[in-house]
Design goal:
The chain is built from 4 helices and 10 strands, in the order H-E-H-E-E-E-H-H-E-E-E-E-E-E. The chain is an alpha+beta fold and about 170 residues long. The protein has one domain (about 25-165). It has an 8-stranded antiparallel β-barrel. The chain is globular, with a radius of gyration of 20 Å.
């Protein structure tokens, strides 16, 4: 009985001091992409400077057949998704998981290995990523652009700049 009390007291002291190991943060790669989002250009991007209107709503959904989305491929390279800009003309764009080289090129390979970032790309047009809220990321031709994500969901559109996605209820 005394051992149990000593162990419990030790755990309380360690917990109060903040030295107990904390549970690992959830691997962002295991979180679902499917949903509706509000789209907002990041301040200072080319799109924001030019006053390019942001789509009012973005929808990401899983693709079960390549016939559903023009350009989607049933190549067995893992799950695929599609992104559409609700209320705007045009077919949904296919999204596929980044390959290892994509994370390396962005300087995010260590984050990916630690389960701290997961990205989907739509060819060379755009990509979207999921990380933990509050994460600051660098990107751009010389890593000269930075974004601190509020929601953990962000992306970059070619020649437009970065954007943040906020899940809609």
């Amino acid at each position: 009985m005394l051992r149990v009390l000593v162990a419990a007291a030790s755990a309380l002291v360690l917990g109060a001091c903040g030295t107990l190991p904390r549970p690992a943060a959830q691997d962002v790669a295991t979180q679902s992409w499917s949903g509706d989002y509000r789209f907002q250009w990041a301040a200072g991007t080319q799109a924001a400077r030019r006053g390019l209107p942001a789509p009012s709503q973005v929808r990401i959904r899983s693709v079960t057949s390549a016939k559903e989305v023009p350009g989607a491929k049933a190549d067995g390279n893992g799950p695929q998704w599609a992104i559409s800009f609700v209320g705007e003309p045009g077919a949904p764009l296919p999204l596929i998981p980044f390959k290892a080289q994509g994370y390396e090129e962005m300087g995010w390979a260590v984050m990916r290995a630690g389960g701290k970032i997961a990205c989907l790309e739509s060819g060379s047009f755009m990509f979207v990523c999921r990380t933990h809220p509050g994460t600051t990321l660098s990107f751009g031709r010389q890593n000269d652009e930075q974004l601190t994500t509020k929601t953990g969901l962000f992306g970059v559109a070619l020649h437009q700049g970065s954007f943040e996605l906020t899940p809609l209820d």
